[in-house]
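ok so dumb question maybe but i'm new to this and my supervisor (M.) told me to 'just get the structure for Glycosyltransferase 2-like domain-containing protein' and walked off. so i did the thing. is this what she meant?? sequence i used:
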Amino acid sequence: MKIYAVMVVYNKHLSECPSFCSAKSQSDVQLLVVDNSTDESVQNQEEARQAGAWFLSMNGNKGLSKAYNAAFNMLRKKPGDWIVLLDDDTEIPDEYWVKLRMESPDAILLPVVMTANGKMISPAEMKHDIPHLVQSTESITEITGINSGMAIPKRLADSYSYDERLFLDYVDHQFLKDMKNSGEKIKILPTNLKQAFSADILDLAAAVKRLKIQKSDLLTYYSTARWKARYLIFKRKLHLAVQLRYPGVLWNE
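this is what came out, is it supposed to look like this??
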């Protein structure tokens, strides 16, 4: 079995990325690092080479969709069974790779992804095209999930292009939506990953910048149902207003 692992990194040294350390320890996994970094002090190419990983620089942060498309294009003519998507902040246990090798590449696999405080953030329930967190995978009827640890049969990746209008948010939901519309199966891989995920941004400037990306991506994803985008944007603004104790964020455009 041949497995490719694609890890998009942003302004982090590879030695700081637990998913990099996990993937490089697997003898049958070819790791491809796609670097979206804008910090010139972050130089990852040599560390990737020493680990036997392939390296692709995007020459700045071009967004997640463009990074994935660049990776898929690089891998398109290479033989293989799986492409695994890795975030740079996720802990991947050895059990994940063991269980992946036991699966046939006939369905997209979503592992269970937990935060450090024990909240499950993937898989999730898609209700009326809006993702909702659930407490148990057993309650899911319409599945969606995040990119972290997603295993994609390579035959699907070879014929897919991500919508590059989506910079960061809902890239994963759009992919899974497209796959379901094409009749592809999505299954849960029974293993837990831990992601150092935080929706809390304590710096106002960073929060406003992140909000602009979310707004653009949501308006793109919900291009035929703008009210859903506006609803989710308002919820995010309300969260930030409480978190930052700055109600002015509610009127931010």
